[in-house]
Amino acid sequence: MGTGDFICISMTGGAPWGFRLQGGKEQQQPLQVAKIRSQSKASGSGLCEGDEVVSINGNPCADLTYPEVIKLMESITDSLQMLIKSRLDALFLFLEDQSHLPSLQHLLGYTSLLTATLVNQLMG
């Protein structure tokens, strides 16, 4: 994984959170987000597939095995906070998901034609 920014992701309301993890100490791989379900808590949180999970509710993940991570996740009842090392190309993954385009248009103030042109140039 390349270098990226560290961000804090917060979700409330309890499981299901809407993402799947992979990796862990026993696999000699960093704990990473493998999959995000569409229209889930995770899909609207800023979490991206490929992000590295640094900590979960203040618990560092570097020395945790995958089963330990699952046990930790199952113990969380309402509020989930994760420190994430985001992928450098997360913006491009965000732009690939066409469902975000209306909010991107509003955020950037572009018309749909200009947004489509911008996205085509970035993805192009």
TrEMBL record:
Entry GO CC: focal adhesion; nucleus; stress fiber; Z disc
Domain of life according to the entry: Eukaryota
Pfam assignment, any one: PDZ
Domain PDZ span(s) in chain numbering: 6-88
Compartment(s) where it occurs, according to its Swiss-Prot or TrEMBL record: Cell junction, Focal adhesion; Cytoplasm, Myofibril, Sarcomere, Z line; Nucleus
Keyword Nucleus among UniProt keywords: yes
GO molecular function: actin binding
SUPFAM superfamilies tied to this protein: PDZ domain-like
Official protein name in the record: Synaptopodin-2
PANTHER family: PUTATIVE-RELATED (PTHR24217), SYNAPTOPODIN-2 (PTHR24217:SF9)
